[in-house]
Each structure stands twice: as structure tokens, then as C-alpha cells.
Amino acid sequence: MDQSLPETNRLDTPDGLGASEVSPNHHLLSLYLYSYVRRAVLPVAVLFALVIAWELWVRVTQIPEYLVPAPSAVASRLFSDLGYFSFHGTVTLIEALGGFAIGSIFAVTVAVMMAHSRLFERTLYPIALLVKVTPIVAVAPLFVIWFGFGSFPKVMIAALITFFPVMVNTLIGLKSVNPTTLDFFRSLDASQIDILTKLRAPSALPYVFAAFRISLPLSVIGAVVAEWFTGDRGLGSVIIVAHNNIDMPTLFSAIVVLAVIGVTLTGLAALLERRFLFWHESQQSRYVL
Amino acid sequence: MFRMTHISVRELTRVYEQKDRPVTALSGIDLDVGKGQFVSVIGPSGCGKTTLLRIVAGLLAPTQGKVEIDDIPPIDASRKQEIGVVFQDPSLLPWRTVAGNVRLPIELQRSKNGCSTGSEVEDLLNTVGLEDFRDAYPHELSGGMKQRVALARTLAVRPKILLMDEPFGSLDEITRTVMRYELLRIWDQHPITVLFVTHSIAEAVMVSDRVIVMSERPGRVVDVFDVDMPRPRVPSLEQSREFIELTARVKAALTGAMRGPIAA
Asked: Which domain holds residue B104?
């Protein structure tokens, strides 16, 4: 499917250089958006067909709404009270993104320190692993007790769940430098700071972005799970309340909003990847895996 | 013609500690390279040519013996950014443009003693014939072009010594020949001291003032040939009797230095 992405910035195209002189990345981005939309057509069509089938099934079998609501019932609930869902959705999104930001900054800092000190790595890595293998669902109620009922415990849970994938990938990325390039830097007696900022950090970017793709949706999961334990705001608490009331259209609406948030965040991560990793092999392949 | 010694290698031995036993990569190497001289080192695979080059570059410490560049250890010469290295892998930064890659060593200079002007980068790009590709990224370049960028980048800090480790080793034969004469043309403009490691006999003879032949591991110097062909060296010299004879002699020395079926 990827052959829909034409060769840009390539010298063997007639105006390859001319185009890149104007604004290479903008050009690439709009082409990417176009191919993104094209690639979305088929899965969206299939999804649409499934929803139709679901609607028909509910109407034919007359299955009660407290078991499975019809898509039309979910849609009418969602759109009749869009303000309600967008408010709680925004709360969850902000908690997730705040946690993601805090977790990522912390993870990158720790990874940089680990990359420069074996002692640090050997001390902290097992502790980080311990935190990672502890189920987040088990920690969430504890955080609520410690940090109260506001947004803080949710942000902390989102940060915690974000931390490990970003830390591990950044660490691997910082170490995955071309040995010859490192020799070149060393042959010029480059400072450790220059080696970090001009060589290791850019080399780590593909790994960091791969981690972002994993931990962005994870941060939403973290926020929702934390919201289950405190019942005032956010889609997690909406789900719990709807569940207690057996209010299936509301429950499904919250799930739909969460899915939309997840897809948007993942798409955004992919877009940023295109923007910042245009030079990387992963962005140049025109073949389907 | 008398020249000041620029690189001096004395009794150089390098031993690598392997898991089960130590491996001697270089054994008792003696070598002198005069100021402004172009010297090639040729030898079979695994003879320690790269090890020798890395020690002269200050990237590796000798086990025994001494290497001096203008009477100071290589590590100090590299601190003064007197040494430029070109590797077989162009090892460009893929996220930087051609101009950005050439500018890199200037940015890495600790003592910012001026001279990091854009015009200098332009001059270097002109020298290697890549002025039209200043804003291209490495993934858009051919292998030969990448190696031109690597050469321009290394020349950016105006090194006094150029160390080249099979710089054209991964290029096809045609590009390789073109690059050989390109290198000679650039060197005629900036005649600095060059230590050039290669696999190719013709390449070694054509570019060098002196060819040093090394043996299989442990690497030793088995023979040294002075090349008295006139400069500038032009492709037509490849048909000259001098070139053909010298190539044959280097080949004989190289074959003599090999063990196994080829030597027979």
C-alpha cells in the first residue's frame, strides 16, 4: 500500500532538489496526510459495515438494551450530550497527556544518566523493572489514598505507565550509535556534551518515537484506570457510574470517545515521526512488510 | 629529498585480549612518514592495517612501542585537531544535510577560534564538487558522493595529517577509480601528510610516494617501495612501464607475505 507515497526529495526525480529547496517537510507532510487518508478508506469501510451488521442484529433479535445497545442508541446518547462527553474526555486527555509528559521527561533523564554510568544503570534498572512489573491496577487505589481525589493521582499513574517503555527505548537508542561515527567524534576530541547532543540523542530518536507510540495510548489507560477509583470526573468515572446504573448507551459512548482519543494520539505520534525522522530508514521504505 | 618526519612509529606492538588467548595484531612495526608525504599501507585482510591507523589516530593505545606525531603522542595531536580520519563507512549524520555534515567538525571545536564561517563550508563543497548538493540529505546521495562529503567533513578542521582507512573500499570499481583521481586532485591543492590504508595494489601505487607492504597476522612490515612517478599523477600513467613494473613488484611482495594456497 505504501507505493502510494511518491518519491519525494529524491535526486532522481526531475525536480527533486527544486522541491526540497522550497519546503521539503511541508511537502512531505501533505503527501503523507493524503496517503494516510487513502489508507484509511478500507478499514473505515469495514468498520462501517460491522456497525451496520451490529445494528441489524440488535433490531432483528430484539436483544435488550441493558445487554447490547444498538449503535443508533449509542450515537443518539453521544450526540445528544456531546458537552458532557467532551468535558469528561478532555479531563481524561489532559490527565493522560500530563502524565505522559512527566513520565517521558523523567524517563529520558534517567536514560541519559544510565547511558553515562554503568553503576547508575545497574542500580536503577532493576528498580525500574520492579515498578514496571507491578500491575498498575494494584497501584492505582494506593495512589488515590496517598494523593487524594483530584487529578494528581491520575497524572501520576499515567506518568508511571509511560515511564518504562520510554526509559528502556531511550537507553537502547542512546547506545545504538554507529561505532564509526563515534570514532569520528572521538578522533576530533569531541566533548561528552557534543557526543550526547549531536550524536547520541538524534540516534535515539527513532527508538524514542517507537516508545511514544506505545506509551501514548498507555497513558490514557493509566488515567482511566485511576479514575475508576474516584468517582467525580473523567471518562473512567463515567464508565463506572454508567456500569453501576446498567446504562449501556453511556458506557459505550465513553468507550467510543476513548477509542477516538487513542486513534488521534497514535496518528499524531505517527505524524510527528514523519516530521522528525524523515532521514531514518523506517520512513524511506516503499515496500509493505 | 629530505623531509621532516611527521609520523613516527617505533617498535609498535598491539595485542588484543581474546577470551581464551591473546591475539597479536601488530608486531614490531617501524614506520616514518615525512611531512607532506603520501604513504600507503597495503596488506591482506586482518593484517592489522586498521589497528595501525586507529593507533596513529589516537583511538587505540599501543601495547608496546611508541607513536609520535610531531614529537607528541597521537592523543595530544588529536586534542589539537591535527588529525583527520576518513573511514570506509562514510558515517555521515543522516539527520544533517551535506552542508550540516561538513560543518560538524567546526561545531565540535572546543576552542572556538573563529573560522567557522559559511564560506569555508562552501569552499570545501566546491573542492569535492558537491556545491549543488549542499541541502541534500545523505540518504539521497550515492556511495561515492557520501565519501566525498566524508572527505570534505574531515578537511573542515584543516588537519595536518589525513588518515584514510580503505576510504573507497565499499565503492564499485568505476567510482573507485574516479575517486582515486579526485583524491589526488584535492591532495595536490592541499598537500598534507597522508597515511592511506587500502586493499588495492593499483590504488596504492598510483596515489603514493611510498607503499608499505604488511604481512598476515601478526602484522609486520615486509617490504617498502618508493614510488618515483611524477606528479600530478594522471590516468595515462597506468599504462606506463614504471607503474606496471612497480605494481608487479608490490604484488609479488604481497603474495610472498601470504600463507596458504595463494602463496604457492
From this structure: 97-158
